[in-house]
Structure formats: structure tokens, C-alpha cells
Amino acid sequence: MTDISPALAAQLTAEGVDLERMVRLLDDLNAGKFENSVGIEPSTVPDINNPSIIDRRGPVSYSLSSDRAPERFSALGLPFAPETVAREECGAFVFDEAALKRIGVHLYPKAAYGVLNGGSASSYADVKKNRSLDATLFDARRALFDPLAETCRGKPKGITPAYLNPDGTPGFTFLLLKLRMLLEHKRLYREMVGPLPSVILPAYQMTSVHTDGPIQSALRDYAREPALRDLCDALGSPPLEVFTESQSMMAAITHSAEGMPRRVFDRAYGKADTGIAMPGGHGQNFEILAPVYRKMLAQGIRYVWLGNIDNMGYTVDPVSLAIFALSGKDAAFEESYRTPIDVKGGILVADRAGKLSCADIGPAISSQDVLDFEAAGKPVLFNCGIGLFDLEKLVARLPSIPYRLPLRVTDQDKDAGKYAQAEQITWEIIGLLDDPLFFAVEKSRRFIAAKMLMETIVTSFPPDEPETPVGRVSAVIHEGLTRLLSSEYGLALSGGRWIPRS
Length: 502
Prior knowledge:
- By secondary structure, this protein is α/β, with parallel strands linked by helices.
- The protein contains 19 helices and 20 strands.
- The chain has a single domain, classed as Spore Coat Polysaccharide Biosynthesis Protein SpsA, Chain A, CATH 3.90.550.10.
- Strand 13 and strand 14 form a beta hairpin.
- Helix 4 crosses helix 13 and helix 8 packs parallel to helix 10.
- It is globular, with a radius of gyration of 23 Å.
- The protein starts with 5 loop residues before the first helix and ends with a strand.
- The mean pLDDT is 92.
């Protein structure tokens, strides 16, 4: 702290940087504590037939030996025996999709649902960035883009419209829809199992210092929103509560050319005692959310989902929950076949020994490598940003994850000068696990993400003649959006707008 001038400290603090945490990171970095956090070296991409990958693009079944199945049912506290929901084949119980759904719904009181909700909509609504997706399509949708962009700018993405209604008006926000989806699954539990317990599918989130205020304000408004309030009242569900922890900003650090030890960068734009505040990456969630994870474990939660707020396909899935719980593995992740619009995010890769991990396009693997894999006929599985964790095992790992998760320190040469950025990526936790599970899913069902506003627009209004790759993908994704709104989110189309289903 003594190396940071009062002027620099005041500027960075005002911009949301936690200086004590920043200095702790630098001390650990300079002491070599991250030297073993290098991740795997991507060599290839795995085949769909890899034993760690379960194909969820159609109906699925799952088998357990006749000896192991009763043990797992007992450990999970299920109120029925394996033979009552499965068929026996060759010394094993085989659970079909209906049986898995029943098991998964019974596990809802042991599961929680979390979102990474710290992003703002600044770059999301950037004109240049959105036009680069498809210039012709952008120009054709400009009349929709401009007013929606104006609505989104300056807001956290989670409280911006998740879709456009057929009449062109903005739809419900990402966060409101996630909360409504959880209520719909609580309704499913009541229909299949019985009265709701005091703890069932609690929600949690990681916000940021810049987004937390508006998000908390929105949550207070949502408590009075009929789309949520009426469903709460009908279920006899307690008021909505979202456990929240907020992520601070990090500061740019010195360029590698300046050698070690690394310091806080303090010459932005050539001005003395001037730094740059920047995000530290969602990978910090394992540190930021640690109090929430421990609190939920004490409440009896055993499984936690974690995913991005802007993915409309990220919903509670009882079938995957059942398979994961029966497997006894540490974590499971969802992957879909990459499409032309999947350019920002990670892909599933393997090293030369066959160990699997997630490699982010750009920081960990080049876009050209991805194209080369596809040109060689190797399907690339794109990370959907959906993880399902055994909470007890996750909590045991929490102290070590910040030092084992790869710390990506990348040099930058921009208008502000030569500096470096340090960040961690959530999904590289895959590389820390000995035997993770993967679900290969249908993109239109589980991965309708909105990294750019144009993706939200073309998903809502796909082109009439889908001649481009973006146009072809958006037509399929539009069908998935419609299906999700009418099922998972409990909406019905009326008068050109999606409204709560009665």
C-alpha cells in the first residue's frame, strides 16, 4: 500500500477498486503463488463418444449397478426405491427420462440456482461491435436496435430486456425471467411431490460494485411485479430472496516489459498517479461467493447451478440434476456444438494425455485453432457457461481455487499506455477436476446467449430469408426462444406480447 500514492489510491477507490484485495493479489503474484495455475495445454477437442460426455440432445437414460443404486438413493434421501422407477437389465437399474425427471424434482430442496450478474450493457449496445456481427442484418434491424440500445446503455445487462415481443416492444428482463422460472419449477415440485419446504431452489448472484445498486433497486421493484407476485401468492411461496455478493474492480498492473515485481500501473495516458480500473474476471466468483456457498451448505443445499444471467437457455433442469446426483461426481458442465455466432467464450479441449478443460477463445486458444479443428472435421463443443457443482466438494476446494485457477496476465498496448490485465475465467475450473461430467446439449434449448444486443434482436426477429450463417442460426434460436418462453418461463402469447400464463 505504501507504493500507491494517495492520489492514485483515491482515484482507484472511487472507481470501485478494493485496494487491499488488489495489493494481496500483487503480493501473491510476485511471490509466485500462481506459478502452478497455468491450465492445460490444448492439443485437440474431444469426440462426442468420450465416456465423460453424455448426449442430451434427445431423450436420455442413465444406468447404475444394482448394488450402487440403492446406496445412492439412500444417500440422496429419496423417498422411493430404485426398482419403483427403473427397469432392471443385466445387473443394473436403467432410469429413463421420466424417471430421471422425477428424481431431479425430488432433489429441488437440495439444489440452488446462481447467476453471474455483474456485467454492464455498455459494450453490449456498442454500435461498431454489433454491426460487426452482420452489417447487412444490422442495417435491416437498425430501427429496432437504436431505441433498445438507448434503453440498455448505462444499465446492468441483467435488468435489460431479454427479448422483444412480436409487436416490437421490450420484453421482461433477464433477471425477472430467471426468478419467474424458479417459481415455475417450485410449482412443478408442488404438483409432483407436495407442499413446498421452507428451503427450495434458493437463488444467489454475484454482482459488481457498478451494477449492484441498480440490481438491488430492480429486485425491490420486482417484488411488486404481478408477473412474480401473483405466482408467489398462488404457490404460497415466501417473498423472493436472492443471496448476493458483489465483486470489486481490479486495477491494471505494470507491463511485462517492466519486469518483476509487478506493481499497480500508474501512468495511464501519460499522467502521473493515474490508474485504470477494470474487471477481474468471473473466475473470482469462487472467492467472492464463498460466504454464500458456505451459508447454503449449512442450510442443507447439496447442489448448486452457476451460469450467466444473459443465457435464456440457462434454466433448472431436473434430468441433468438427477444424472449428476446419481453419478456422485464433483461437477458437470453443459456444452453445445459451436455455431458461427459463438465467437466469444470457451470451447471444450483436451491435452495430449486426454485431460479435458475449457479454453477461452482469445486468452487460452486462438480463433484460428478453433477453425482448424472444424476444418479437420472435428466438431467443437462450445461452453454454454452452465455448471452444476456438488456443494460440499466445492466448499472444501474454496481456499485453494483462487491459486489453482489459471491467472491470465495479458499485456495490453492501448491509448492509455502499455499495461497488463490479470483475470480468471470461471470455466477453467474444469481443468482442476479429475473426472468432470459433461452434457452435450441442443443450443436452441440450453444456450441462447446475448453477448451483443443484435443477438437479442435477431433471436426475436430472425431474417425472413436466412441466407447468411447468422441468419440460419438465428432462425433456429428463435424457435428455441419461443419454446422457452412458453414452457420454462410460463408465458403465453397474447395480442403480440408475451404475458404471464394464467
